[in-house]
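Wait, can you check?
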Amino acid sequence: MSIGQTWDSEITTLRDPLSWRTIKQLTTQRNNVHMYFTENSFDQTGDFIIFQSDRAYAEDVAPHEHPQYNIFRMDLATGVITQLTDDPIRPHAFTKTPDSRIVVYVTENQIKALDTHTGAITLVYEERDGFSVSSPSIASNGRYVGFVRNEEVSIPNHYTGVNYGGFKDRYYLIKDARITFAYLDGSGAFDVFRDTHQLGHFQFCPDDPSLASFCHEGPWNLVTQRIWLLDVASQTAKPVFRQTEQDAIGHEFWTQDGMIFFDNRGPGHDGTITSDKTQAVLTEVAVNDNAMIPFVGLCDRTGATVKKIDMPFYCNHYHANPDNTVLVGDDVDKLVLIHLNADSDAPARLEELVGHSTSWRTQSSHCHPTYSWDGSHILYASDEGGRVNLYLLEL
C-alpha cells in the first residue's frame, strides 16, 4: 500500500441500545484514530475527515502493541478512504489547518508538512539534540508550526503500551523542555520558550499567530500551575487561571471564538482513567469521586477567567460546540451532552447520548469526542471488539 491507495466504504449504521440513537460506524478494518481533542479531524466543509490508521501495514496488532499509523482522508458521503502519507506516525502526533490544506505530522525525529492539494511533503524540522517532539500546532497565518520538545529521559521498568505508563515518573524526571517554531517552507527553526517542567498541549490561538497556550504536563494533583499563555513577541508566559492547592486542572483547549476552556476537578484527581476504571496515579481514589463540586471555565486571551460553571458530575474529556453553550463529554461508560446554561448561575445539565464501550486502555482508545465545525456531528473512537474504530453521531 502507498500514498493514493484507496479503500471502499466501511460505513455501517448501528442503533445504540441505551438511547436508540442512530450511530454510523465509519471504520471496521484494523485500528483507526481521529485527531486529539485539542484538534479537529473534520474539514470545515463537513465533507470529509482526516484521521490515522494502521491499515497500510501488513501486521495486524492490538492498540497497546504500538501499531504503525499513517494519515488518511475519508469522504463522509461515499465512505471512500484515501492514504495521504507513508511515514510511521504515533497516534495523535499530527495537526492540520481548518481547511485541511496543510497537514503537519511527527515521524520519528522529524516534522513534515503535507500539502493535501499538491501532494508535496516538506521536511520542516529534524531533531538532533536528544529531545522528544510532540504537540504540533499550525499558526493561523500559515507560516510556521509550533511544537513541544521535552528532553528524553529513561524510566526504569517502563512499559509504554499501557495508558499513562510512566506518567508520574516523567513529571519528576523532565527538567528541560522547549517550545520551538519551524517555518512550513522548511527554511529554519528556532526556540521561542524554555522551561524546567515537562510541557504539553501546545496550541496556537485560532486567529492570532502571536498568541499560544501550553501546559505543564503531569498528574493534575501534582502540577501547581497547568495552563500558560505564551506571548510570542516577548517570549514570555503567564498563568491562565492561577491555581490554588485545591485545584486539579487540565484538558484545556481553544474554542472556535478564541477562548481557553479548562476543567477543574478539585483535590484528589490526577486527570487519568485506566481500563480498570480507576485513576493511574491516585489509584485509591475512584475516577468519579469529588471532594468538591468540579467546574469548567472559560478564560479570555489575556488569561482572565470570564465564566465558571459547576459540573456536578464527571467526564474525561470535553469539546465545545461553536458557540460554547453545549459540551460533549466522555464519562466512564457513555457519551453525554452538557448544557452550560451560560446566561444564568444554574449548574450545567447533563443529557445522555450513547454508550461508547471503550476500554480506556490506550490513549488511542480514549473516546476524545469532538464536534464538527458547524456543531451538527460528533466524532469519537472506541476499541469495542479489540481494535480502535471511529464513530459518527448526528445531532
